[in-house]
Amino acid sequence: MRFDLTDLRLFLAVVDAGSITHGAADVGLSLAAASERLRDMETAGEVVLLNRGRRGVTPTEAGDALVHHARAILNQMARMRGDLGHYAKSLRTSIRVYANTAAITEFLPERLAPWMAAHPQVDIELRERQSPEVAKSIAAGFADIGILSSAVDTAGLELHPFAIDRLVVVAHAAHPLAEKASAKFTDVLDQPFIGLAGGALQDHIDAQAARYGAKLKARIVLRSFDGICRMAGEGVGIGIIPQSAARRGAQSAMIAAIPLQDAWATRRLSVCACSGQELNPHARSLFEHLSTLGQELASE
Predict the structure, then answer these.
(1) How far is Cα 247 from Cα 287, in angstroms, rounded to an integer?
(2) In 3D, which of 291, 278, 258 has the Cα closest to residue 163?
(3) pLDDT class for 89, splitting at 50, 70, 90?
(4) Of 82, 215, 233, 278, which is most buried, counting CB atoms within 10 Å of its CB?
């Protein structure tokens, strides 16, 4: 059987996402092209690699074996590129970073920028995931570096402080909630809601609502925190966003930011890597850069 690197990347992405559709998108393939590649892999190997169901896909026993070998091959390729990158200025390498919504939107752009400017030969493959998925992906070797909430299971991971992410309710300045110093999530479950499109943060909020047997009443779903603030400032509904985003939004919209009392709404974010896996030199440099910034903030 002959699998190329694209096959291996696709297979790992599909297993990681639990979905052929999402896995294909992660590696830049159409669903049709990805499905054809996966069928060809199974035909060439005369083996079933994925269990396909209505809720997604999971690897078979043979698929688990391929995951192990594919991860080792791709990690070795990444290390090779990283090592040679010190000697060949034209050789590009990439670092896979998985992070939750707050890290990607509120913290990473500012912290990644100076490091990337100093390492022009390195690209970052940034993927948005919920914290439990980040932990599993780092432990499994699907990504090099992760940013996650320390509230999840982090066994087998090397962790360093990264940031504190506080979620707040944003509402019109004249909204009854604006008079409160803080609010419980149960106080807003019956409010018209302004949601965030296709993000791990919204999935997290929806999961908290489901714990109470509730479903948020979304009036509209937007792609940015700024858009949520503007809608809340016009009295369209309430939203739940990071405190830092609410502070920015307050400069251009008539909103109040009400802290959520619930424990899940204040999360200590950590930068992590797999403790049993050696990072290539560039990935180690980035990991130490992000760790140092987080430790400086934690000591303030």
Answers:
(1) 28
(2) 291
(3) low
(4) 82
Report the alpha-carbon distance of residue 166 to residue 201 in Å, rounded.
Answer: 12
**Taking Cα atoms as reference points, which of 211, 212, 218, 214 lies closest to residue 237?**
218
**Helix residue spans in the chain (DSSP H):** 5-17, 20-26, 31-45, 61-85, 101-102, 108-118, 131-140, 200-211, 225-233, 243-249, 281-298
pTM confidence score: 0.71
Give dist(CA 197, CA 155) in Å, integer. 31
Task: Kindly indicate the confidence band of residue 17, based on its pLDDT and cuts at 50, 70 and 90.
Answer: confident
Q: Which amino acid is at 145?
A: I
DSSP annotation of 59 reads: E
Among 267, 269, 264, 265, CA closest to 294: 269
- Beta-carbon contacts of 111 under 8 Å, excluding residues fewer than 6 positions away, are 289, 290, 293
Contact status, residue 19 vs residue 129, Cβ threshold 8 Å: no
Sheet strands (E) in 155-251: 157-172, 192-196, 217-222, 239-242
Cα 191 to the center of its chain, rounded Å: 27
For the chain, list the domains and their CATH numbers. Answer: 1-91 (1.10.10.10), 163-266 (3.40.190.10)
> pLDDT, tens digit, for every residue of 174-203?
999 999 999 999 999 999 999 998 778 898
- Residue recorded with tokens 């760790």: 291
For 99-103, 260-264, 278-282, which range has the lowest pLDDT when averaged over its residues?
278-282
d(CA 86, CA 280): 11
